[in-house]
Design a protein that fits this description.
Layout: H1 3-9, H2 12-33, H3 37-47, H4 52-70, H5 76-90, H6 101-116, H7 122-137, H8 142-150, H9 177-186, H10 200-210, E1 222-228, H11 230-237, E2 252-259, H12 271-289, E3 293-297, H13 303-313, E4 319-328, H14 344-347
Antiparallel strand pairs: 1-2, 2-4, 3-4
Helix pairs in contact: 2-3, 5-6, 5-7, 6-7, 6-8, 10-12
Protein name: Nitroreductase-like protein
GO molecular function, one term: oxidoreductase activity
Pfam family, one: Nitroreductase
């Protein structure tokens, strides 16, 4: 007889006593090992291995970043971050006569490597225009002059230059607070959908809107893995906890996946979750405006499920799932949990 069978055969009082003892012992260990950072590290080395995947994923992400830096191509995250830093320097009040000396050389080299590789996209146009304005604005120092000589950008005189602009050029906001609140109230977690396919065109429209979400240094370290169709959607949704009973009803599931290969330092390991969540929220609101409902599906860090989803989606080890989103046309008869929300009084702390 297996241990599992023996455990099932035990009377409830015995089971409850074992659970209580295990809980008390576990809490005592947590109390002991939480007293210092060193002991906490020992706890997650010898008592619990729950952070093993994150540790390895962060290291592999840093290694992936280094490999991208060594390759003669486009290091997307590095170039995005540094061009954004240049933009912030250009809009500074007062603007310093020289800035970015410590990273302007590597930025120009990264831009040039991508240009030599024949990469022509929005990022390259943006980098070209910002670098052009940067070299026109800053003074002379040996490092800046060296980078200026190496920069072989193109001066563009059209009206679509990708450079900082005054706030007054933003379009007028056509949505009132009350209208926005209607959209927020409509965006509910929907679990029951019509048996109706979701068009790729609408999904692409929603992603276009999500791409405008704020992102730390504009790195946008995430992608949306779309499983469109009930069979594919169910396969992915089953990997998550809390979907039993409704995963076969989902017409489409989107996995929001962060890329730890966008960072050279472990200190930035949580940015994929921040940026991915900001984009996911904007995506859900965009879907709602297009007549599609959604449901964010929690993605806890469980090793078996991480491996399962990584195999289905073909994820690298340094790519971490932020969350799953169910998407489809809501069944008008499907139930919506009331889900009482906290008020501003509960949430605001003035200091």
């Amino acid at each position: 007889m297996s241990l599992m069978s023996i455990a099932r055969a035990l009377p409830d009082p015995v089971k409850n006593a074992i659970k209580a003892t295990r809980s008390t012992t576990g809490l005592a260990l947590v109390r002991l090992f939480s007293s210092t950072g060193f002991l906490a590290s020992l706890y997650y080395c010898f008592v619990s291995r729950e952070f093993d995947r994150e540790h390895r994923a962060v290291l592999l992400g840093r290694l992936n970043f280094a490999r991208r830096m060594q390759s003669k191509g486009e290091n997307d995250a590095f170039l995005r971050r540094n061009v954004h830093r240049l933009e912030k320097g250009l809009i500074m009040r007062p603007r310093r006569p020289t800035f970015a000396e410590d990273y302007i050389g590597p930025t120009v080299r990264c831009f040039a490597d991508a240009a030599q590789a024949g990469i022509v996209n929005g990022q390259q146009r943006w980098a070209n225009d910002v670098l052009t304005d940067y070299f026109s604005a800053v003074g002379n120092t040996p490092r800046i002059d060296s980078a200026r000589q190496a920069f072989a950008g193109t001066q563009r005189d059209d009206d679509n230059r990708c450079v900082p602009y005054p706030h007054s050029q933003l379009p007028e906001c056509p949505v009132s607070y009350d209208e926005l609140m209607v959209l927020f109230r409509r965006r509910r977690s929907v679990r029951w959908y019509q048996d109706k396919p979701v068009s790729s065109e609408l999904l692409e429209q929603a992603v276009r809107a999500a791409a405008l979400a704020p992102s730390a240094c504009n790195r946008q370290p995430f992608r949306f893995y779309i499983s469109n169709g009930k069979e594919k959607a169910a396969e992915v949704a089953k990997c998550a906890g809390g979907t039993a009973g409704f995963h076969d009803n989902l017409p489409c599931v989107i996995a929001v996946v962060g890329d730890l290969g966008c960072y050279p330092e472990a200190r930035d390991r949580h940015v994929v979750y921040i940026d991915g969540s900001l984009a996911a929220m904007q995506l859900m609101l965009a879907l709602e405006s297009l007549g599609l409902s959604s449901c964010s599906i929690n993605w806890p860090d469980v090793e078996e499920r991480e491996r399962q989803l990584a195999k289905i989606l073909g994820l690298a080890y340094h790519e971490r799932t932020v969350m799953l989103l169910a998407v489809g046309y809501a069944d008008p008869t499907g139930g919506i949990p009331y889900s009482d929300k906290k008020t501003e009084t509960d949430l605001i702390v003035y200091n």
